Amino acid sequence: MIPKEYYGRLFTKAQLPVDYLSEAVKLESMIKVDKKLRCKRCYSQIEEDWQLPNGQYYCRACIVFGRNQEGKELYYFPSEKSEVDFPVLKWLGKLTPYQNEVSEKLLKTYKNQKHSLVHAVTGAGKTEMIYKIVAYVLENKNRVAIASPRVDVCRELFLRMQKDFTCSISLLHADSEPYDGSPLVIATTHQLLKFYHSFDLIIVDEVDAFPFVGNVMLNHAVKQAKTETGRYIYLTATSTLALEEQVRLGALEKHHLARRFHGNPLVLPRFFWQGRLQKSLTNGKLPSLLIHQIKKQRKSNFPLLIFFPNIAVGEKFSITLKKYLPTENIAFVSSKSEERSTIVEKFRKKELSILVTTTILERGVTFPQVDVFVCMANHHLYTSSSLIQIGGRVGRSPERPTGKLYFFHEGLSKSMLQCRKEINAMNKKGGFENEVSTM
Predict the structure, then answer these.
(1) CATH number of the structural domain 97-257
(2) Domain named Helicase ATP-binding: which ranges (predicted)?
């Protein structure tokens, strides 16, 4: 008997027990598209130098999931129906009328066998809006995957949905436990490469985020992991031209929500000119304006999140800031931090008062009542989308729907101005006519 965790999965021959091979469906390992050889698993084009000593081609792009090579097959076990307890959703919250409208449209679009794009402002409550469609699919004995390019987003979704759904849920990322066959999967988009025709619904959160946006392999993973009749839903707070083109062509049905769940507008950034920050850090000092604003903010006792465009400067700033504010609990976190999730959780629990970070925390994480300072806001690594996402950390809590959103810069950038323009436009679309400044 084939274990349930094998169904809907894609394997190389070396990954399967010999006894299971006869029961698996075989697939070609490579396919030809426009006379070019491509990997069946990840759709990467095979380069001339991707050859073994025997002359056979193999795929380097997805080798971390097991070597897929020319002349050998891939194997999969067709997905089976799942069983969940009724009702599978135990969330006792209530959607706002605006959220409920989007929730109902998602269900209707799914039943009409169409794909959806939800373009909702940061803090609109996108997670709660997908609960009804997720429950519907699960209760009809089908499988659901919720994927994100960012592992931090996956971890937060997993914790929330564990509380709100009665079924077993798998969290899959590079360092996670193996898949256990659960009907609901929360995974990084890379992990979808391990599945084949498995899910009747795939929801991709933060669809505009790196590394998913513009990535042929990861977009292929979504389409290959869904069943032939399955549907996908894309979630974003900052839509892209490519997504809007899919809407125009009818490939996606768009649902828009320009209001936060608590009914208050998005917070607009306030700009501060701040020169010579890196030079000051080299001398072990902080500019007077910046440290003045930090000290002023600390009098409020609200947590402070400080963003930097790169790791080296952010880490140096964190060390220097501790010398200026020895009584504050300060930490630095980046993509290279070994205890990243632990540090983030400490900040969420207010065991840390100031967290210095990079764009790794620009999206998908919620810190109640937080203020945000963006240093070197004119840096080329900050796009208008990333600045909007960073700004979206502020004002998410109904207990404090406002907050400080300060951009410290050495000259206004197009991204900064575009960020402010788009936030203002979203507020107007949400029914707020006047500009809403920060405190």
Answers:
(1) 3.40.50.300
(2) 107-257
| Structural contact between residues 340 and 333, judged by C-beta atoms closer than 8 angstroms | yes
Distant-in-sequence, close-in-space partners of 354: CB < 8 Å, separation ≥ 6: 294, 298, 303, 304, 305, 306, 321, 325, 328, 329, 330, 331
Q: Which two tokens stand for residue 319?
A: 């060390």
3-state DSSP call for residue 66?
coil
* Neighbour-count burial for 144-163, b at 16+ CB within 10 Å, e otherwise: bbbbbbbbbbbbbbbeebee
User: Which secondary structure element, helix H or strand E, spans residue 218, and what is its range?
Assistant: helix 216-225
- pLDDT for residue 438: 44
Decide if domain 270-429 falls under CATH 3.50.50.60: no
Q: Is the per-residue pLDDT at 217 higher than 80?
A: yes
Q: Under a CB-based contact definition with an 8 Å cutoff, are residues 358 and 310 in contact?
A: yes
User: CATH 3.40.50.300 region(s) of the chain?
Assistant: 97-257, 270-429
Packing angle of the helix pair 97-111, 131-139 (nearest 10 deg): 40
Nearest to residue 266, comparing CAs of 118, 434, 153, 129? 434
Q: pLDDT tens-digit profile of 261-309?
A: 999 999 999 999 998 899 999 999 999 999 999 999 999 999 999 999 9
Q: Would you state the structure tokens that stand for residue 99, as one six-digit string?
A: 């959220």
Q: Residue 81 corresponds to which tokens in the numbers above?
A: 């129906």
Q: Which residues pair with 39 in a beta bridge?
A: 30
Omega before 401 cis (within 30°)?
A: no
Answer yes or no: are the C-beta atoms of 26 and 196 closer than 8 Å: no
Of 358, 354, 388, 346, which Cα lies nearest the Cα of 370?
A: 354
Whole-number CA gyration radius for the chain: 23
Helices within 92-215 (DSSP H only):
97-111, 126-129, 131-139, 151-164
**Dist. CA 157–CA 419, nearest whole Å:** 26
Structure tokens given for 176 = 């996670």
Residues 6+ apart with CB under 8 A from 257: 98, 99, 102, 118, 119, 120, 121, 124, 129
Residue 134 phi, psi (nearest 5):
-65, -45
Distances (CA, A) of 286 to 143, 235, 310, 382, 390: 52, 39, 17, 22, 23
- The structure's pTM equals 0.91
| Sheet order of strands, 25-28 included | 10-12, 73-76, 25-28
